[in-house]
Write a structure and sequence with these properties.
- By secondary structure, the chain is α/β, with parallel strands linked by helices.
- It has 3 domains: 6-25 and 240-369, 3-Layer(aba) Sandwich (Rossmann fold); 29-235, Nitrogenase molybdenum iron protein domain (Rossmann fold, 3-Layer(aba) Sandwich), CATH 3.40.50.1980; 401-433, no CATH class.
- 43% of the residues lie in helices and 15% in strands.
Length: 435
């Protein structure tokens, strides 16, 4: 059997739950040293290192003069995509743009009767680097990554959006990626991938500019590189394998549940697909459906391995237990395939994204629903949120005292400063008041 359903309250069920609650992994230690060396090379040799790595792993004829996608390449990309793609792209951009515009924050001020003014100034970062994976050497261009990362940065008002993506062996970038980038106003695109692309964005090279924020998905080398440059620049998150948890009752369709588990499993052999059901017969029906649908997939071997190694089906006593389990697991994608999903929404505390009802597959959120698909994984939804406009914003405090206001607060400032042994702090107030 591909996955053996387990009763949650059994010793085996408790063991599986314990594993889910402790699934966080800080990173892949096996590539840490390699990535450190790559970053150091890029920091010291700049373009020379980026080109050398690019020639070794991506495009054998790559040169420094070819690192930036040319105006000609950008223009020609439109001749290589069809109208149907442009139609779908336009729909996705419209939905993602409309959703993320609601996220924009405003600056604000508070004034007091004594003339003191305090507030917060919201400003975008100057530059952002958008990493877009190559996708099987360019044959499966990850257009959605361009949109989900680039649109929020644009709404935030980031002046310079820089996209990096590995070229194919021919030294070219997928026209679908180039068109998607241009449609959201990004024309500064560089042919660089993996850890050396992250290094170029973090340190800057003769060709690729240094940025303030780096976002975008990637393999373990990309994730580790982002981890190592974090602090020097802001990153979106250290993402683990993609994951879904489906809470289902007797009303759920085994066909749909299995399809959604497979949609998650085909991402990666390490992808995590979980079903928690209050209806025991559904568990067996889903297993049968998984076996039936698997041979129909183009990535069936990847999906089969993910399900066999990491797939979980748990049978819960009741819906309350299932929802509490979902909160504890804090999954990236949470699907509620139950009779009345909206009634349970107030009880959900931790999830990257929540999909309500039988007609809401997680795939809709990946591409066109509007909310961002860059989500916290490995249980970090307990404290982290989806990538959004705020990822590209920073906030500065505003403080302006009147003479009257400072006089009114001076006694308290001096008292607290002296308590902390910071007499110069206290004196900086006292001298203004002639004390």
């Amino acid at each position: 059997m591909l996955i053996s359903p387990v009763v949650l309250s059994s010793p085996e069920g408790e063991s599986l739950l314990h594993g889910l609650l402790n699934r966080f992994q800080a990173g892949d230690n096996s590539c840490r040293g390699v990535v450190r060396d790559i970053l150091q090379a890029v920091r010291e040799m700049k373009d020379e290192a980026v080109v050398a790595y690019g020639r070794k792993y991506d495009a054998p004829e790559l040169s420094a003069g070819q690192l930036q996608v040319s105006a000609k390449e950008l223009q020609e990309a439109y001749q290589q995509v069809d109208d149907q793609f442009l139609e779908s792209l336009g729909r996705a951009i419209e939905r993602i743009q409309a959703f993320h515009e609601r996220e924009m924050e405003d600056s604000w001020l508070q004034t007091r009767e004594d003339g003191t003014i305090v507030g917060r100034l919201v400003r975008p970062v100057d530059s952002a680097g958008l990493y877009v994976p190559g996708g099987k050497g360019g044959t499966t261009p990850l257009v959605s990554s361009v949109l989900m990362n680039g649109i929020p940065a644009g709404i935030a008002g980031v002046n310079q959006r820089v996209m990096v993506t590995p070229p194919g062996k021919d030294g070219k970038v997928s026209p679908h990626l180039l068109v998607a980038a241009q449609e959201i106003g990004i024309t500064e695109i560089y042919k660089a991938g993996s850890a050396w692309a992250i290094g170029a964005l973090a340190f800057g090279t003769e060709t690729i500019p240094r940025v303030d924020v780096i976002v975008g998905p990637g393999n373990q080398y990309v994730a580790e590189a982002k981890r190592q440059v974090s602090g020097m620049v802001r990153i979106d998150m250290i993402a683990g394998p993609s994951e879904v948890l489906i809470v289902a009752d007797a009303t759920a369709s085994a066909v749909s549940v299995a399809a959604d588990m497979l949609a998650q499993a085909e991402h990666d052999p390490l992808a995590l697909a979980i079903l928690v059901t209050t209806h025991a017969p559904l568990a067996g029906a889903v297993v049968a459906e998984l076996e039936r649908q698997l041979p129909l997939l183009s990535r069936q071997e990847i999906a089969r391995k993910a399900l066999a190694d990491r797939g979980i089906i748990l049978i819960a006593e009741d819906l309350e237990t299932a929802i509490e389990l979902a909160n504890n697991v804090a999954i990236e994608h949470l699907e509620l395939m139950i009779a009345d999903p909206w009634s349970q929404l107030p009880h959900i505390r931790h999830a990257g994204a929540i999909f309500l009802g039988a007609n809401t597959p997680e795939a809709a959120g990946d591409y066109i629903a509007g909310p961002n698909h860059v989500l916290p994984t490995m249980g970090t939804a307990r404290f982290a949120s989806a990538l959004g406009v705020e990822t590209f914003l920073k906030k500065s405090s505003i403080i302006s005292y009147s003479a009257q206001g400072l006089a009114a607060d001076s006694e308290h400032i001096i008292r607290l400063a002296e308590l902390e042994g910071l007499t110069a702090h206290a004196a900086s107030v006292a001298v203004r008041l002639g004390k």
